[in-house]
Design brief:
The strands form two sheets. Strands 2, 4, 5, 6, 9, 10 and 11 form a seven-stranded mixed sheet that branches. The radius of gyration is 14 Å and the shape is globular. By secondary structure, it is mainly β. It is 0% helix and 49% strand. The protein contains no helices and eleven strands. It has strands at residues 2-7, 11-13, 18-26, 33-39, 46-52, 58-60, 68-73, 78-83, 92-99, 117-118, 122-127. It starts with a strand and ends with a strand. A hairpin with a 5-residue loop joins strand 5 and strand 6 (58-60). The model has no long low-confidence stretch (mean pLDDT 96).
Length: 128
Amino acid sequence: QVQVVESGGRLAQAGGSLRLSCATSGRTASVDYMGWFRQAPGKERDFVAVISLRDGRTSYADSVEGRFTISRDNAKNTVYLQMNSLKPEDTALYYCAADKTYYGGRNLPTRPDEYDYWGQGTQVTVSS
């Protein structure tokens, strides 16, 4: 089992920045990918960003490309999501997830059903 805990969400102004953290514990050696997803009220859970813990490869949703950056600190078993140039449409509950399946050189996992462990979420609200 892997435990996932997000933190860092809060109210922010449009154009501002936030950094979310995602700490993992338990059988963390089994995890190959860490992803961030977000879900606004009444909408589906959408992919935001993913990072490979083996080689650092990253992938982003088009809506956040160039504004958000995912990074990892393997020694701390923590993944971060740096969010810059925030927009009101970034308002959502942000989830961190861990995927323990290694896919080799294929595309990084971006679907929620590819992930095995989830946190409870941290709320990000961006005011205009």
